[in-house]
Amino acid sequence: MSAAEQTTADGAATPAARALVVGEALVDVVERPDGTREEIAGGSPANVAVGLARLGRRADLLTWLAPDAAGDLVRRHLQGAGVHVLTGDRAAARTSLATAHLDAAGAATYDFDLEWDLPDAWDGDAGDPLVVHTGSIAAVLRPGGARVADLLEQRRATSTVTYDPNLRPALMGDPADVLPVVERLVRAADVVKVSDEDLAWLLPGVAPAEVAEEWSRGGPALVVVTHGGEGAFACTAAGARLQVAAPRVRVADTVGAGDSFMAGLVDGLWSAGLLGADRREALHDVAASTAEDVLARCARIAAITVSRRGANPPRTDELDDPSVLAAVLADPRT
């Protein structure tokens, strides 16, 4: 039985709970220090959808693809991972490109050639999703960004809302212009995951923990700040303050690491029974021990991802196999 189905007590198949991911899917052109070049499907929300599908969740992606060769590459990748690509009434003129320049340490900087919008209507979106996720370019770039914010605010009545700013300074212009957009989405979200690099650009000179504290008072039940190889900090609306270490692994590159962490965060809260609008109060009261367990698992997911080339998050069977993480540890004693 697929991740898109579950069974009732009498064995009949019914639609499974699902995640609706809204945002860009594009082609990443990866340029490595040795001069090699590779074209692979990417985009932060698309990577989150793939991460969820690999963890056994039904993930529907509402995106903006053209009927061209690059769009076909992206569709094959998503469908091969088990992601349901929702078909809209309008299509992009061209599929977007992002060029990732990797340095000797595997860290990526990006250049973009893209457009972003949402269709007015789309097929395959029957029933309310358990969770709606968005982030990155799709939440900021016009004209689609404002439509995404409207969609999230509408979906709050039935779904948990999650958000990862995953900001792209090369594309987004002045942080002072981006901040109100981010803050609107933070207020609409139940769960926010943001990197320390995002916050350093968006709010220079302000401590990441201070931002997390402020955001957690504005609506979200959980705000998580990732610090790359140094792990993550989180604060909950219930008052918990948590610090989780990241396993030390041999890094191939960091492409998709934050997206895999985000997918793990949604998946972990899903497993804990904390997703869905009817579970909003329970999510706001989440126990510190539960949040810590979820974050530790997210850190393992991200660690495995950075040990591989490209945005290649683990499947559930890999994550549950201790030998997979042990094989990529930088120091076996870690």
Structural description of this entry:
The chain is an alpha/beta fold and 334 residues long. The protein contains 12 helices and 15 strands. The strands form 3 sheets. A 9-stranded mixed β-sheet has the order 7-6-3-10-11-12-13-14-15, sandwiched between helices. Strand 10 (131-135), helix 3 (144-155) and strand 11 form a beta-alpha-beta unit. Helix 1 (44-54) packs across helix 8 (257-271) and helix 8 runs antiparallel to helix 10. The longest helix is centred in the C-terminal third of the chain and has 19 residues, at 288-306. It starts with a strand and ends in an 8-residue tail after the last helix.
Rg, nearest Å: 19 Å
Sheet with the most strands: spatial strand order: 7-6-3-10-11-12-13-14-15
Q: What's the pLDDT, averaged over the residues?
A: 90
Largest beta-sheet characterization: 9 strands, mixed
Helix and strand composition category: alpha/beta
How many alpha or pi helices?
Answer: 12
Gap between N and C termini: 38 Å
Shape: globular
Instruction: Work out the helicity level.
Output: 25-40%
The total count of strands amounts to: 15
